[in-house]
Amino acid sequence: MAYLTDIEIAQRCKMKPIYDVAKAAGIGEDYLEPYGRYKAKVDLKLLKDSTRKDGKLILVTAITPTPAGEGKTTTTIGLADGLRRIGKNAVLALREPSLGPVFGVKGGAAGGGYAQVVPMEDINLHFTGDFHAIGAANNLLAAMIDNHIQQGNALGIDPRRITWRRCVDMNDRQLRFIVDGLGGKANGTPREDGYDITVATEIMAVFCLSSSITDLKERLSRMVVGYTYDGRPVTAGEIKAAGAMAALLKDALKPNLVQSLEGTPAFVHGGPFANIAHGCNSVLATKLALKLGDYCVTEAGFGADLGAEKFLDIKCRMADLHPSAVVVVATIRALKMHGGLAKTELGKEDLKALDAGLPNLLRHVSNIKDVYRLPCVVAVNRFPTDTDKEIEQVIARCRELGVNTVLSTVWADGGRGGEELAKEICRLCEEKNDFSFSYDLNAPIREKIEAVVRRVYRGKDVSFATSAEKEIDELTKNGYAGLPVCIAKTQYSFTDDPTKLGAPDDFTVTVKKVKVSAGAGFLVVLTGDIMTMPGLPKVPAAEKIDVDENGVISGLF
Questions:
Q1: I need a labelling partner for 438 at 20 to 30 A (CA). Which of 14, 103, 215, 462 fits?
Q2: What is the pTM of this model?
Q3: Is 95 an annotated catalytic residue?
Q4: 94: closest CA among 272, 333, 350?
């Protein structure tokens, strides 16, 4: 049997005009700014004008990712469609895809099968231009820093200690480390520089955590761009760049409204990576979805140790959000891979490998229940090769933790395949919960890092490089010790070693660098061999993408 590709399914969808989608979400035409027929931005005045009580916040997260796939975004969309099918008013809040992974290894990132948001091609490519605006604002600041030095350097910035890097929303390893300002005095000051991918920049984090234009400008002003010769931090406000950057970002800050294949209203806005940034869609999109729906279904990037931890410890803390329930997504195939099976062997029943891989799922579930104290359900994306015995084994092991398991077939069946999950979520949302964070914000920087490693990753210890120790001491001296920590590590393991699958214990995480994102309001902790500019794989997804004479795109996942 030949299956349609994601893009073929999306292109066969008869989309509703965006005005109809907005009406279904309770958005008046006065608040809508259309970008064509099927997407629009929503004026932020709606948040101020609405007197509607906030709905329930549902987070969808997942086990540690593997090449076998988990289907977190697909489950998120299918759950929202399922909620609407059982008569509930649900609204989606999702991240925008980065062009880096779209052209790199992952392909599209707008869901899959019959649980997608559309127009899929637009969302995966330029969309409404938000990422371009973020990149322009980032690079404007970079240009103004170097120009300040060129024009006399009144602030005394040490060119060797400029921490602000340029960016591009593309996987391009060639730009990780560069030397610029060459060609003589008229062409700037020669120095070492580099590029980050746009979704790993502090501008992206600021964009996603801002609550208004005013808050955006204040956050932009606080961003540290480098240090003076005597070690004093220099901010974007001192460079006098915040106003111009905010002007570039003012339209981008308005959340984007689209729809699922079944017409569920969806805000797709902002997209920081979860392995090197905080991994959540914008606060403004989440708050709009909460204001418009009885249920806001959102997701956080990669496994629960990354995306969910940052969603709960950073985003919820900053935006005063209180989740009502959490979905942990898993597949039998991925669990068997965590149990040691090769990708080529996943199609056969193997209860031993499944049993060896199940601790990965159970650790994530335990974190949600016991660390963050939130109601939780496991959603198993069923594949045709999954056997009844394998599914029974997952259900039994999760039941030991007091958590129900629901089979999900949203990839094949859309919202109909998410109805049982929707019913379980509605039940969990009625339970009282004692939501708490994994660490005390007032604890010293080292203790906050150690708390995440020990309580969430379940590691034994943290090793701090000498340079990281000095950075922590300097950050504490400069008044940044009270910020939450955003730990950058591999997404493929609880550890900082991507080869250690499953649920390893007795490991040590090595912290190599700690830097401040003062505008975003957190400290970035770099562990292992994490990089802020990915590279393309041997066969990039871009090789398969094409467009015909009629403008129809193919090969996009």
A1: 215
A2: 0.95
A3: yes
A4: 272
